[in-house]
Amino acid sequence: MNKEILVFFNARRCFALSAITLASLSLTGCFSEEIDTRQTQEIQGLVYKVHADDPFTGRVLNYPMSVLGLFSVGSCAVDFKKGLPDGEMRCSDNAGVLLGVGEFKAGKRDGKEEKFDAKTGKKTAEGNWKKGVQDGLQEQFNPQSGERILEVHYTAGKKDGRERAWDGQGKELIADLEWENGVQSGFDNRGTQHRTYLNGKYHGLQKEFGIDGNRFFVAYEQNYANGELHGTQKRINAKGNVTELSEFEHGNLRARTVDEYSYGGQHIHHVSRLAIKADVNEFIASDLSNDGLEQYWDNNGHLIRELVWNKGKLVSAVASTWVGDQQVGQYQGVARGGDEHQDDVTKHGQERIFDRNGELQAVVVWNTGEVTHTLVALPADRRSQYPGKMALLNPNWGWGNPVQEIPDFDTASRYDGGGYAIDHITIVDIPAPGQAIQMQPAKPQAVAAAASNSLDNCVQQRVDAVHAENPDALIRSDMIEEFEQDCQ
């Protein structure tokens, strides 16, 4: 009897010792030591406790939370086994609020992972990992409402299967894609680029948005077929005007219409172009050939140039000069040079230059881009003496030309207002628009012959006498000096 009692008590003692051992293991978890990250060092990718010979096994506190993809202010506690994260990682902010929980195995993320919002405590993300890569369903949630805003399926680190995204409130579906072998089909309207795909290539209508102040607007509309531009393409400004309309055929540009607008919204240029060259670069405008009607307007809406093209060859060109709302002059444009697929245009005819007040300052007569005559307004002290007259400059004698003569059809010549040699001019009648220059010398009116101008009048009479005998005679400076001496 005593022997049985002894056996019974020995059995109870063994059971109690076993229970204490199991309880001890349960309390300590899978680690036997807990240290701060400042007590560790990393050697060849393994974590060691300072001064220890073997890689650390236990729990490390204040571990960086960036390992879990978190960037808030706080820290993590993570289990280690033989120098590598192995087990659970829990991350909290400095107030102790849980921000994330993840699992590791042999140093790699492996298992379920969750992240939480510090203010609401609601889950913001949930995912699954295997051997360091995403594997399985990954989800994101609105931190306020808890509504799901993203779901993606992964296999071995690559998207596989369905991917869906909703707006920030989790209400509107903004992306719906199906992934297979690394390529997607479906639509993705996240961000400012709205895309549709077929087997990994753009297919169908694509849109890009720009920003104007605090609003978004459609800046581009492009149509694709199996990854190639195909059909109508549009570029649109913030005011909703189509500034470029292109037609593509399986990746090749065929035609383009360009409309330019000023900052204030005024239509200032319209042109249509064809892709005639074999090796057209869609980004170089000069590779295209103008076709049809081309027009230019000033900022007040006046038509200032109009050209008609036929596959890069100029048919006609007219430029108009405006003072206020009154058209005061025109000149022509003609083809000169250029490329085989596109003519260059130069000025031809009479170009009249006015100041802001509408006063005629100069007349340039062009012949296929070459200046034949330049007439300028007379100095103020000569205008009363020669009303209705201008000075015809002699390009071979004297100095100075106040006119900047620009042969390009699309750029107006300018009157810069500089001086010129009054001794080497011919005074002629102001020509009417389109009228030929009258080369005969002009005679001053008698009423202008005041006593204060007697010397000038006398000299001019001598000059007129020479021109009366020979209208093409050149009056040299030494002749002027001789006339002045005779008149004194």
TrEMBL record:
It comes from Pseudomonas fontis. This is Lipoprotein.
